[in-house]
Amino acid sequence: MASKNPSFFFLLLSVTLGLWPLIFPASSTPSSYYYSSKDVASDDEGDWVLLQSSIGISAMHMQLLKNNMVVIFDRLDMGPSNLSLPNNTCIQKPNQPADCTAHSIVYDVASNTVRPLLVETDTWCSSGSLIPNGTLVQTGGYHEGERVVRTFTPCDDSSCDWTQLGVALGERRWYASNQLLPDGRVIIVGGRRSYTYEFFPKTDAAATFYMSFLVETCDCYGDENNLYPFLHLLPDGNLYVFANKRSILFDYNRNRVLKEFPVIPGEFKRNYPSTGSSVLLPLRLNGDVLPEAEVMICGGAPYGAFNNSNYKRVFVPASNTCGRMKLTDPDPKWVMEVMPMPRVMSDMVLLPNGEVIIINGAMNGTAGWEEGTNPVFNPVLYKYYLHDPARRFVVLSPSKIPRMYHSTAILLPDGRVLVGGSNPHEKYNFTSYYPTDLSLEAYSPHYLKPRVSTMRPSILSVETSDGIVLYKQVFSVTFQLNQYNPGSKIFVSLVTPSFTTHSYGMNQRLIFLEVIEVRQLSTYDYKVTARGPPIATVAPPGYYMLFVVHAGIPSQAVWIKVV
């Protein structure tokens, strides 16, 4: 849908058919009320490219792998997709017609092609993490899939597919969150009516641990608002857990709350279905000192928003606020900022230069089937490092496709942002006002503009053994740079590939390594020497995208493994 506002024909049709509250509710406010085209800064504008008009499924969950492939999947209970399974393969469930279509694909970034995959149990609203060897461990889902553990190990041919493990989760994990831990395990937290956490792998298949915080933060007789809790591993090894409006410092080994942080100010809830988003801002390393850790949470909806949209068809305005809090301060406090427009169901993606892009979503309503309206077409760039809060948010050029409930966005190794999905319906629905969307787009941020190409580093080599960086290891990266800006520093950033669904990038993390030296080798060749992360609590073991950043402009990434 190319326009934010319905034509007169649609307006007349909606009134005639009694669909007015769904299409243009009284509480919805046109986006032009909040910002106009003159607010879009040309220096920061990026470019949108439609990669695929249809990949056959809706990109509800996405995970980038170490071989530059992206695993994408939706769910098994929404009807046949638009992509057939190969070799006449079908899934037959009791009392249901056979489904011979794919509900998962692997997307090849380089060739812009897709290959169907076979997933056998329902993955709706599930969670996932890459483990240190690069395998995706995917957990939970719906109905027969709610306790299932699935894995996908990347390969360089067409032989790899989903594997469903024989071990079951201890409880249903539907709308749960995952985080990779320093010892290589994955912690799985929460889910609908699951007030526990557990680990994968584990010695006792039934071992789950009660977490009272999940009960305390549930609006259980209203909207819930604590599903998909935000998890961030902190440099001291403890877990930051945010749900609803509250957050804690949690020792998961001893099942103990070490600290409760201040409640985020304002009336707005921040977790599903009042879906905001969260990132841990970049960690800057300097020697063996543990870095500061600061969380940022944006968007959401007020209490009752889900029930208002679901039962009354009144779509209340979303939150236009973000909160930042330095979790490592002795006396942490929220610092609130105002976005250019309200947002719910938006994704927050860490870019290689440390900036944050806020993308997708709506301005009214909540997550859920037909629960949101008034899509936000314009991403927003957030420059966390600027001292003046008034200059931190920059409205970017818009997409033409509404990305509502069940849309996703992830960072690619070339610096683009891959965007897909949007299915705010119980089934595939291609005729509604906000139809199911099967397309994939790429957003190219400002640093990919041709005018800055001469200042973009190009990595020539990483001086490590087999691409492995040890903790505290000093190593060098040789890169080419046609135009060096003497007033700009050279940074080396490590970025984890996140598992993204429901506006939350699980395991998303960006680390600026300590740079020891930058040396010019020839007219255009340079060598930067950096020190690897100090410990696994700062950088959990596994695969990272390594970028060299000059003047805010990142190179294309190379993959390294931190061990």
UniProtKB/TrEMBL annotation:
SUPFAM superfamilies per the UniProt record, alphabetical: E set domains (SSF81296), Galactose oxidase, central domain (SSF50965)
InterPro entries attached to this UniProt entry: Gal_Oxase/kelch_b-propeller, Gal_Oxidase_central_sf, Glyoxal_oxidase_N, GO-like_E_set, Ig-like_fold, Ig_E-set
Signal peptide: 1-25
UniProt keywords, alphabetically: Signal
Domain Galactose oxidase-like Early set: 456-562
Domain Glyoxal oxidase N-terminal: 60-447
Official protein name in the record: Glyoxal oxidase
Organism: Lithocarpus litseifolius
